[in-house]
Amino acid sequence: MNSIVGHKSQIENIRKTLEAKMMPHAFLFTGPEGIGKKSVALEILKSFTCVKTKGSTIGYCETCAGCVKFEGSSHPDLFFIQPDGTQIKIPQIRELQSKLIYHPLEANQKMVLIDDAHKMNEEAANALLKTLEEPPEFTHFILISAMPHRLLPTIRSRCRQIAFSPLKDEDVAKYLIKNCALEEKKASHIARLAGGSIGNAISFDPAFVSGVLERFTAVSNKSSTADILELSETWGKEDTDKTRFILDFLSVLHRDMMMYLITGKKTDLVNEEAVKGASFRSVERIDKNLDEIFAARASLEFNSNKQLMFENLLFTLTS
Q1: Which of 21, 31, 191, 288 could form a disulfide with 164 if both were Cys (CB 3.0 to 4.6 A apart)?
Q2: Edge-to-edge, what's the strand order for the sheet holding 110-114?
């Protein structure tokens, strides 16, 4: 597990479970996107395919036939389900069920990983529920979801849930320095914008970030209705990941404003542009703006009209 960043308590919890031979029929790993849930799940799966460890702990030898087949994505007792387009559909679950009726071919257990489990459509979810209610012998599931509330309550209740939290900024920075050959200052800057997600950090786009800062600064200074409507339309067309990033970036920017007003220091700011923004905002106003940003972020998964969401938010932030 040396390749996993953070999540020490969760990993130790799982390790103890395996060593006590108390592996549940189904785990549900929850937490934000890009923080390492799937990486931990894959470590568990590989541990079960290893001929030496056989799932008795989290670990593997790397050299046995099971480990080699895992790395080559050819192990016959591993099954991976992910969205087909925007959904996990009933044929995917039916095909899985047809393969789980047989005993494992090489490992002691069959292992199923369902990524983005909340994207199962209703038919798929109901079909999986029946399998979880009467799980096949020698079979274990790991469901991964950033939005577990979208899963059927009955599916959640049949899984042991393990919650994963965003990573610390310093852990993300260390990863970037080690794996992306970034200098410390740049890695730290990106880490603070990534929201505890290595996935966000790796996909960091400096040009996009600069554009978000430039456009928001412009509407803040000018506060023109036409400009706000135009920016809302532009941002409303971005995909969900970029929309989340915009909101997270605005949150970081406002925290910087708050920090500067309280401390008067620039040294710990992610964006020094926050100094200008703080010059015409009070601590109370920034605090209210942060509440509005958090509310927009929380509503994103339910809000189909992102343009309207940005309109309401930007009019509040720039008033």
Answers
A1: 31
A2: 78-81, 110-114, 139-145, 26-30, 160-163
Q: The tokens of 57 are what?
A: 């702990």
Say yes or no to pLDDT of 157 above 70: yes
What is the spatial distance between Cα 262 and Cα 274, in angstroms, rounded to a whole number?
13
Contact 77, 103 (CB under 8 A): no
Domain ranges of the chain: 8-163, 205-318
Residue 103 CB contacts under 8 Å (≥ 6 apart), including other chains: 137, 138
Q: What's the pLDDT tens digit per position in 234-251? A: 999 998 888 888 998 888
Instruction: Calculate the dihedral angle through the C-alpha atoms of 244, 144, 36, 7, rounding to the nearest 10 degrees.
Output: 110
Rounded Cα distance between 154 and 170, Å, is: 38
**CATH of region 205-318:** 1.20.272
pLDDT in tens, 289-312: 999 998 898 887 777 799 999 999
